[in-house]
Every structure is written in structure tokens, then in C-alpha cells.
Amino acid sequence: MKPERISPSTAWDAVIFAAATSVAIVLPLHLVLGQEKVPWFWVFDAVINIIFLIDLVVNLRASRWSVRDGGPVWFFVDFLSAFPLHLLPWGEVLIGLRLLKMLRVGQLMSEWRRARLQHWNTLRLVYFAYWVGLLVHLLSIGWLVIRTAGVEAPTWEGYLRGLYWCIVTVTTIGYGDITPQNNVEIIYAIGVMIVGVSMYGYVIGNIATLLTNLHPARRHYLENMERLGAFMEYRGLPEDLQRRIRAYFAYVWEQRLGYDESTIIGGLPPGLHTEVSLFLKRDVIRKVPFFKGAGDELIREIAIQMKPVIFTPGDSVFMAGEPGREMYFISRGQVEVISRDGSTVVAILKEGDFFGEMALLLGRPRVATVRAVGYCDLYSLDKVAFDRILASYPKFAAHIESMAKEREEKH
Any idea of the CA torsion for 305, 309, 315, 316, to the nearest 10 degrees? Predict the structure, then answer.
């Protein structure tokens, strides 16, 4: 399978996600530890400021605020997080407004969830771990502030000890080597314990469901295979036929996660249905000589009528002498063209090739046998549907008729 191409907008969203997350980690440390302990902060902040300003311009040019719910609110979130707040009075405090960008992180997670519904359960686990990790970091800083208030200046060692205490408390381990020393620390510890128990309860309550639904497509495939096995055994199908049927479904699972292309595309609204069909089949159609010069509307009509079909190794696509009713386009795999007497392989056709076009042009019986070498994904175009399309395009119909006559004369 071809690797998925990452679009520029998705790549930029990933940059914003990383920048906002780094702000949520570094900025609280800077506010608590101070400039001396985080001397590189202003360089970091300048880089983040530039990234957020670029994001402000990108969103402005893309008019994102005018098309999504709560547009003005998102504008102020982007604007305040991108503004050079350190130049203003109380800049050390106002710089905390950069944390508003974390709202964008939540929005991006929601968008990625909608775009990757087939991986939603995996994303759910990843998102949960992300927010837990960030929460533990912030709780550790809170413990550091309370622990050192009026006693000593916060240090990196103090943060590390706070992180250790927070992790053992949230995970309900609680070694007891670091304990609250006053009422404020006791109240804070109680709050952290409640957070830890809540998260622990969430994990225990949902882990079975999360693991069960981690691969819904695989579960659907295994359920279908179980029903199929029971059916084949009940009907007493031959072992060889059962093996071929299982191999076919295994191929469909490996290549398409068990989903039928026609079913998926057929569930789309007409506009999207046409666009997806055209995207999948345009290049294949353009390679056919008698489609050259056809207009976009005609190509669109043909793409809609092309149906995906799968042939397993050794299957005959058609036999010599059969009436010709379809032509085929190879999307994936190879087929061999065998002479009428069945003794000679005339040609090997592979991805991007087509065959059986005489069925559309002349309606003649097949002059050769075509057999799948391995698993083959083809698109078929039915003669009835093709003739119906030609009825709407008389000029192209005349072009096809002249080509059919030329071929008839050659044969």
C-alpha cells in the first residue's frame, strides 16, 4: 500500500500542536522557577511567538474564524497567544495567556478524531495518556509551589521530587517517603489523590471496552469469517473451495480492511460520490485510446459506471467464445491473455492496462481467454451502461462508431 501523503495543513497543525504542548510544559516552569533557573526561556518564547504569529496569519488567510463555531472566540485565542505580551506592563504575568493555545490542541484532537474514525479507540488511549502526562506535570509544579512557599526558592531538584511524589500518588502507589507537612499540603494531597482515583477508575472501567474496540475492523472481519466457516461446514463445501473462499476474504481484509469499495462510495452524497469515483479511475480511463479527447463530463459519467471487481489466482475473467458484455481496467495485479485454443499465453497485462474493449465497440464474442495470475483488482464497464452514456453524447458516439468500423475492417 502507498504511504499516506501528509498535507501542508496537517503538517502545520502538528507544528502548532507541538508548540502549544511545549508552552504548557515550559511556561509554568518558568513562572515558578524564575529566569535564573530557566535562562533560555526568552529565546524559547521568541520562537513560540513567531510560530503563533505565523499561525495567526495562516488562519486569517484561510478565514478559519468565519467558518467554525465560535469564530470570534477563536480569533481572540489566537491573537492573545500570539501577541508579544512580554512588551506590556505585567508582561511576566500576562505571558500566561499563551496557555490559551491549549484550546487549539483540544480542537485539533477533535479534528484528528473525525478524520481517523477507524483508529478512534487507539487515539482515545493516546489522548488520555497525553492529558494525564500534562496534568501530572502541572500538579507537580503545584506541589513544588506549596512545598517551598515561604521556606526556600523553587529548584529543579524540588520539581523532580514533586514529579516523583505526584506520580506515586496519582498511580495510587504512595510509598510514603514524601508526605504532607501542613494543612495546605494535606488538602492539596487529598485533591491529587481524588484525581488519581478518578483516573484509575476511568482506566479500569474502560480498559476492557477500549481493548475490545481497539481494532473494530478486525473484529468485524473475524466475526464474518466465523459465520462463513459455519456456513461452509453446514453446506459441506469441498475443502479446496473453502480454502479459496477464505483466501479471498483474507485478501480483501489485508488490502481494504474488509470493506467493499462500492458500499463505502455508494454511501456518499452524489457530489462526493462523483469526486471519489473520478479520483480513483480518471488515470485508468485516460489510458484507453478511444476515450482520448473525451470531455470531463463524459469521463465523469464513465467513472461513475465503472464497478470494482476482484479475481483470485487462476480465476478466468472471461473465456474465449463467451459473449462480450464488459471491458476491464486493471487497478492492481496481473492477468494473462491466452489464445483461443488455450495453449499459448499471448500477453501479460498489468496495472494500468485494459482489455475486452471490443465488447463495448462491436459486441463480438471473446476471441481469447483472460485469466488472473494472482489476486487482481479490476474495474468493469458494462456495455449497457456504456451505450446509455453514448446516447447522451452523440458526437462521442459518432467517434466511437467510426473507431468500431475501423477495427472491424482490420479484423
Answer: 0
Residue 369, beta-bridge partner list:
338
Cell numbers at residue 21, please?
A: 504542548
| Separation CA 142–CA 137 (nearest Å) | 9
Query: Are 199 and 294 contained in the same domain?
Result: no
In the listed set 198, 231, 259, which residue is the last one of a domain according to the structure? 259
Residues near 265 by beta carbon (within 8 Å), at least 6 away in sequence:
273, 276, 277
On whether both 158 and 51 belong to a single domain, the answer is no
Per residue in 267-278, is it b (16+ CB within 10 Å) or e — as a string? Answer: eeeeeeebeebb
In tens digits, the chain (411 residues) has pLDDT values of 444 566 777 888 899 999 999 999 999 998 898 878 888 888 898 898 899 999 888 887 766 655 555 567 778 888 888 877 666 666 566 777 888 888 888 888 888 877 775 566 677 778 888 999 999 999 999 999 999 887 888 899 999 999 999 999 988 887 888 888 899 999 999 999 998 888 877 777 766 666 666 566 667 777 778 888 888 888 888 888 888 888 888 877 777 655 566 666 776 788 787 888 888 787 778 777 777 777 788 888 888 888 888 898 888 999 988 888 888 988 888 999 998 888 889 899 988 888 888 777 777 788 889 999 988 989 898 888 888 888 888 888 887 777 767 766 655
**SS3 (DSSP) at 326:** strand
311: β partners: 376
Residues 309 and 399 in one domain: yes
Element containing residue 309 per DSSP (H, E): strand 307-311
- The length of the chain in residues reads 411
Q: Are 317 and 375 in contact (CB under 8 A)?
A: no
Last residue of a domain, one of 88, 115, 142: 115
d(CA 87, CA 46): 12
Whole-Å CA distances, 147 to 142, 151, 171, 342 = 9, 8, 20, 88
